[in-house]
Structure formats: C-alpha cells, structure tokens
Design brief:
321 residues, alpha/beta, 8 strands, 46% helix, globular
C-alpha cells in the first residue's frame, strides 16, 4: 500500500527519523504519547480541541505511523530519550504538559524522571502502572507471550503481502473474510480483544482508518510493537514506584469501570502530587481518547490553566474547551 503523506514533519535523530505533528499556539506545549499499539492517530479527536487553547503536539514512536524503525529493544526509557531528542531537535520548547495513554504513561513517567525541569504538568489516561508489570501474573505473562507471537506473525504477514490483502478486504467491508485470513495467519490465536489493543478502528473517521490500514501493512510496526510487548516488564523496572511530583498539576483518568486494585493504583498515582486528582470517565472503556475525548480535553485544559497560573502568564489563545 502507498504511504499517505504525513500531517507533520519528519525529524532526524541521527539514527532514524520520528514524525511530529504540532498545531495551535501558546504555552505550555501539550505533548501526547499513545497506547501500546497506538500512534499520533489515536489523538484524532483530542488534538484539535486542545490546539484551540494551546500548542498541541502528537508524535509517532519509532516504527509507528510515519516514523522510521528505531534501535531495539523498545523500552520506556529508550522511548523517553528519543522523545527528548525529538523535542530538542525540532525546537519544540518547554514547559511541557505530558499526556500518556496506557503504555504511553510509562514513557511520560520516564521522561518526567529524566527531565523534571521541562515538565510542568501531567495527564494520565487509563495508564498502565509499573506495579502491575514488574512481576505479572501467569495470566498476564501468557497475554504478553501471545502478543509477541502475534507480532512475529504480523511481520511475516506484512513482508509476504498478506497484511495488504487483509487491509484491502477490511476497507472494502469484507471484515469477516479479513478476520478469517488474519486468524489463519495467526494460527487461530487472534482474539477480538487483540484487535482492540491495536485500536478500535471503527471509532475513527474513514480517512484515518485508511492510514491505520496502511500502518498495519508495515513490518516495522509489528517489530516495534512486539519489542514493546516483549520488554514491558523491563520498562516497568525502569520506573520509580514512588515518584515525587511535588506540586505539579496532575490528573489521572480512569475508564468507567475498573477493579479495586486499579482504583487503588490510580488514587496512589494522583497522590504523588499535592495538586493531583483522579477522575473517572462516565461512559468509556480503555480507549478513552476515542470513547470520551471531551473528558481528556477538559482535564488537559484544567492542567494547562493551572500551569499558566503558576507561571503568572496567560495565552491570547486561552479559551474554554
């Protein structure tokens, strides 16, 4: 499949290029990091609304979206280092409000630990917690192994052209046939919940779905995703379990229904800042950026306003979301 033109720009890090897309004006700059299988496209409904009141920048991790493949393994620490190089090279100036969804919470936590002076606020969107992945349960280990296996088969499918066929069938509306072929390639290990890990594609506009289908025909996508999954426990060990965020404006957002353990972890994360809050989406599963983007926009707006108040400056672009 032919690559669609990137909406942003490709920035060289020396070893590879990353795609960054910024819109809006004003400070602080909001920087987004997507979920495990997500990309800049995951913020389709959020970025334009945030750009109405400040600068909003999405990017693609190495191997995802329009970004080149990057060095392996793909751990949270490496991703955070590459993000810092990207922002510096692209002259995207701090202070930053970092927004991380799911696995993206790992990389923004790593970034905040390594570059605390650059970070003015944090928003966690149904985040992964390192406590969950340092020593995962047997069931979670099995999920990780299944994800790694699926990505290996995804690389084969992409290189052999099977992924292109599946994408074309899906875009033509032949979803059952597309799923059937995908199931054969995955040796019947592909479940509907695995599709949801990639992204609930039906919740995105048609033009964005077309870009995702292209992305899912690229071997580099499955190689990067497989490495992130294979090293998620290593990523968890890179993070401080008890970070001190001082008085940084911080909001963590939960899906509508969560377990008591995740409630505890979310509450504990919010308490890492004296200005931390934990809120719940009213009608959303894990993919809050697509289910309930307005909740994320409102949280970001609150954090941006708190940062501006602390800085004693207000942007002419300031407005209600």
């Amino acid at each position: 499949m032919k690559a669609p033109p990137p909406p942003g720009r490709l920035v060289s890090l020396g070893t590879h290029r990353l795609h960054a897309h910024c819109s809006g004006t004003g400070s602080p700059t909001v920087v987004f990091d997507a979920a495990l299988g997500g990309s800049s496209l995951s913020w389709t409904y959020v970025q334009p609304a945030v750009a109405a009141f400040t600068t909003a920048c999405t990017y693609d991790r190495a191997g995802f979206g329009w970004s080149d493949a990057g060095p392996l393994p793909r751990t949270a620490g490496r991703i955070a280092d590459e993000l810092h190089t990207l922002l510096t090279t692209a002259a995207i100036a701090p202070p930053f409000v970092l927004v991380g969804h799911s696995f993206g919470a790992f990389s923004i936590r790593a970034y905040a630990a390594r570059h605390p002076k650059d970070v003015a606020g944090l928003v966690f969107v149904d985040p992964a917690h390192p406590e969950e992945w340092r020593d995962p349960s047997p069931a979670d280990r099995e999920r990780l192994q299944r994800g790694v296996t699926l990505c290996r088969r995804g690389v084969f499918a992409a290189k052999s052209g099977i992924a292109t066929l599946v994408a074309r069938l899906a875009s033509a509306g032949a979803l059952d046939l597309a799923r059937g072929i995908a199931a054969v390639v995955s040796r019947r290990t592909l479940h509907r919940q695995d599709e949801e890990i990639l992204a609930p594609v039906t919740k995105l506009p048609m033009e964005v779905r077309a870009v995702l289908r292209w992305m899912w025909t690229e071997p580099r996508y499955f190689e990067a995703l497989g490495s992130q999954i294979a090293h998620v426990c290593a990523s968890a060990t890179e993070l401080d379990l008890q970070p001190d965020y001082g008085d940084l404006p911080l909001i963590t957002i939960s899906a509508s229904e969560i377990s008591r353990e995740r409630q505890r972890l979310q509450d504990a994360l919010a308490r890492r800042s004296s200005r931390g809050r934990h809120i719940a989406a009213e009608r959303s599963g894990h993919w809050i950026p697509l289910d309930e983007p307005a909740t994320i926009v409102a949280a970001i707006h609150d954090v941006v306003m708190a940062v501006r108040s602390s800085m004693g400056a207000r942007s002419p672009a300031e407005s209600q979301p």
